[in-house]
Amino acid sequence: MASETLLARISDYANRPNPYPLYAELREAGPVVRQADGTCLIGTYHEIAALLHDPRMSAEPRSRGEVTHKPPFLRLDDPEHHRLRTLTMRPFGPPHSPGRVDAMRGEIARITGELTEALRDRERIDVVDDFAYPLPITVICRLMGVPREDEALFQGWTDVIVASADIGPEEDTTERDKAGLQARQEMGRYLVDLAEQRRGRPTGDMLSDFINEPDPALRLTVEELAETTILLFIAGHETTVNLITNGVLTLLRRPDELDRLRREPGLLPRAVEEMLRYEPPVHMRERIPLADIDVAGTTIPEGTSVILALASGSRDPKRFHEPDRFDPTRPDNEHFGFGSGIHLCYGAPLARIEAETALGALLPHLGTARLVQDPPPYRQNAMLRGPRHLPIQL
Question: Angle between the 134-144 and 105-117 helix axes, to the nearest 10 degrees?
């Protein structure tokens, strides 16, 4: 049956520019659609929401041979997830407030201003390379305290790590996993070494806060420090790159909405929420039931790989009116752009500030801009979906 190949077709690079017809097919076939390899695919809003909040659904990854490292807390269950997430959030300010992030607003605006100034005399730019990538990587490096001369190291590491985390039908992932592990080890060693240089010599950044935690009971182990800081870098910039790029692409395809935002910049926060629903940076998440579980009358056996198609849920017509229409004034916009439940993205406040600042700075330059290529070339990853390049003529 065609429904048994949906995950393979969604993962097929040929469908990366527009997977949404496949998501519609998924919702029609669902709520639970079994794949040829035994995986269960779910794309309806209410079922996804319930499973993201169900403690019987585990975020811990399936074993692929020998376990070589402890997963980051994004892929752990409570109570270990809660412990590490709480410790990681401490440097953001008590009680896990966005105070440190809010304090970065001025720095984010300054970095954005430098990037837009560099576009002033350009006739053609790549939104990814010239803007959407440099902004969040610079911001997360400043938060963590990475020297400016070392910021370029992280693009190679993160590209490999993200590629190794893709979701798709079972295949030989040995080489991909090996490359991902090597990149994690190199990046982890760098960050731990950088933190150790600040032991006893606080410098006010997050690495310094982690290594100089005064309470021994609250300190991260070396392994936890490595995995946590890697996660902060990946989550702190990779999805934001896609959010900004997808946002620019969406507006250039809709000149009327672009002009409206240029006239009414106060709509930007709501427009960013709609971008997170309409063209989200994260499309899928995997969960594993710890017991047999019933979903809409279908029993999913314990240990089954369950792929939650978040991007499909955010376009479910049973939850959103005219879901395939981009509407920056949409009310009641409770999307899955940052997930939901205990693993809700803790970097969401930073991503929102960066996206609003970036798009606000770009809007004056986009009035007469046009896409050089539509659809643009996309990244390979089906889970973290966004253009690899977005060339535009100014």
Answer: 140
